Amino acid sequence: MKEQSARNTREGIIFVGALIFFAVATFFSLYEGSRLDNVPWEWPYSAVFTNWLNGGVESAADILTIDYLVYAAKFAPVYPTIMFFSAFALLLQLASWILKKSEIALSVFHLVCGFALLFMSGVLMSSPTVGLEFFSRVFFVTALVVVISGVVSFVKARKQVV
Q1: pLDDT greater at residue 161 or residue 143
Q2: For the chain, how are helix, strand and coil distributed in percent, rounded to 5?
Q3: pLDDT exceeds 90 at position 34
Q4: CA 85 – CA 139 distance, rounded (Å)
Q5: 36-57 average pLDDT score
Q6: In this predicted structure, what is the pLDDT of residue 2?
Q7: Residue 71 in this model has a pLDDT that exceeds 90
Q8: Phi, psi at residue 129, to the nearest 5°?
Q9: Contacts of 108 (CB under 8 A, 6+ apart)
Q10: Which residues neighbour 8 within 8 Å (Cβ) at sequence distance 6 or greater?
Q11: For residues 58 and 66, what is the distance between their CA atoms, to the nearest angstrom?
Q12: pLDDT per position as a tens digit, 100-151
């Protein structure tokens, strides 16, 4: 019983820590990405969501907040990378809490996440910016780790069922 309580406490602390890291990294990413306001020649390329949803950018006031994150990921990827890892840790922790009754379902979830990251890595692989190329590599390495852990846990769970 003490072991379970200690585990729940540890998981809660990790979750809160990841949440704090995510919030702080988001703040700094938005700050770095706000430089997009002063770079009008980059608006057609980095204000992706504004161009998609509003049909273009006429002034800096038109830029959506999410486009600041895109700009930060392209040109200053340190804080967006911290955002990614903390958000991914939050996602995996939530999944483990929700799927704690089924090891196989959790393993399948890890595999789906890994293949989604592989897809995103492939999409970003030919990016002309250093930041998105870096994200492609981060997604690829993370995908490999998640897929391998998903396969290993899936095999272990299948052996326990049989």
Answers
A1: 143
A2: 85, 0, 15
A3: yes
A4: 10
A5: 92
A6: 78
A7: yes
A8: -100, 150
A9: 150, 154
A10: none
A11: 17
A12: 888 999 999 999 999 999 999 999 998 889 999 999 999 999 999 999 999 9
Q: Is the dihedral of CA 62, 67, 71, 72 positive or negative?
A: positive
DSSP 8-state assignment for residue 126: T
In the chain, the N- to C-terminal Cα span, in Å, equals 28
Tell me the three state secondary structure of residue 39: coil
What is the C-alpha separation between 45 and 124, in angstroms, rounded? 14
Instruction: Write b or e for each residue in 126-146: b if 16 or more Cβ atoms lie within 10 A of its Cβ, otherwise e.
Output: eeebebbbbbbebbbebbeeb
Residue whose tokens read 């955002």: 83
Question: Rounded CA gap, 31 and 69, in Å?
Answer: 9
Give the rounded percent of residues in the chain with a pLDDT score beyond 70: 98
Q: Is the dihedral of CA 35, 25, 93, 147 positive or negative?
A: positive
14 token code pair = 């990790």
Q: Token pair 């379902």 is at which residue?
A: 105
Amino acid identity, position 47: A
Give the pTM.
0.88
